[in-house]
Model the fold of this input.
Amino acid sequence: MSQLIDVRRRAFLRASGVTVLSASAVALLAGSEKMALAQPGNAANDVGILNTALGLEHEAISAYQVGATSGLLQKPVLEVAVKFQSDHKAHRDALAATIKKLGGTPVAARSDAEVAQALNAAALKTQADVLRLAQRLEKGAANAYIGVIPSFNDKMLAQVSARLAADEAMHWIVLSQALKDPLPSNALSFGA
Done:
């Protein structure tokens, strides 16, 4: 069920609040291998935190696949879902590459069928149902990435986390517009 994903997001927040990524992991995520080599750090902790984030990206990719193959999404909405899935694939690839560069093994994705069962995809009956599920998952992802920003000592990692959160928030906004939801009634609606 979606509770499993929410539990994993909370675990990611808790783990990241206790342990922050090293400067070398931040440099690798930011695309600077040369800077990474010059940084000290604890690769094992970094790999663990990055693998938790990678697991969340795997779940997002599968969730969009479930939606795309459900037959419930009409063409313009389906195209947007595929675009958002490609964003999550880019997040996945960056995280997996960083884990490998740190000497770790990226966590494997669960099957689409396992994710579908966890999300109770059988209950999805309309395009709006699929969009509501994606909207809830995107807001959860944005909040997870926002939630870890204050725990980072390294400004580069905070920036990477903010960029990931911005992608997730953008996805949430587009999905909300597609659902014709009103704007949030209060400011600061993310990260609370």
The chain is about 70% helix and 0% strand. The helical segments are 2-18, 23-29, 33-37, 43-69, 75-101, 112-118, 127-148, 155-178. Residues 1-5, 10-20, 35-40 have pLDDT under 50 and may be disordered. The domain at 2-178 is CATH 1.20.1260.10 (Ferritin).
